[in-house]
Amino acid sequence: MVLLALVAMVGYIAVSGYQGYHKSYPAYPEQKTAGQTIDQAVGKAVEKYEEVLDKEQNNPHCTLSNCPISSKFIPGVPENRALFTNAELVNFRRWVTKEKPRSSIDLYSVSANENGVVEAIVYVTMVKCTSPENDYPYSSTTDVHRMILIPSHHHEADYVVMEDEYFPMMDAMKYPAAFSPLYASSEDEDMFPECSEPGSPHRFAGLTRSFTTR
Questions:
Q1: How is the chain split into domains, by residue range?
Q2: Per residue, what are the HEC states of 155-180?
Q3: CA dihedral of residues 207, 209, 212, 214 (deg, nearest 10)
Q4: 32-204, which class in CATH?
Q5: What are 22-76's pLDDT values in tens digits?
Q6: Which of 47, 48, 106, 148 meets the CB 3.0–4.6 Å disulfide criterion with 181?
């Protein structure tokens, strides 16, 4: 019994030490860059894409079988792309409030291959008006996405989103809560969506990131 207790104690100390070290010196995924020009073009493309996704929410003219305003119809997207990305489908199936959200982005990493295809790791923060009757009507979530982009068919210097998927929570948690983004949406009052009843967006100037499970 003494031996078992000793082994258990040593194991506990070893695990605790590893967790403490990992917490103090976390090894985050590499923050890659494809160069400032491409990074900025990718950031702008993702921002335009997220604006479209926000407008889709609770739009009576947009259904799973027919949505003339889906991201497929962003200028420069190939005709053979799917009507929705994976992330768009998730958004459709989870949305429960009647107000439209407002999304902003922080670009963590960009890597490009020889064919011009780009992989981007993007933090998407979605602000929603969930309690319009309250003084604090807004809530927010931040999710980590993996997106695939290609040069636009209209202008090769621009990019369009071909694929977009949410990282599972455990994978998302490998990424830092704070970093210097390669591209970021501007932070101002426009990040707050409209509410049915008056709210106080200024009180939410310090919205924090919170990863959600998909």
A1: 32-204
A2: CCCCEEEEEEEECCHHHHCCCCCCCC
A3: 110
A4: alpha beta
A5: 455 468 999 999 999 999 999 999 999 999 999 888 788 888 889 999 999 999 9
A6: 106
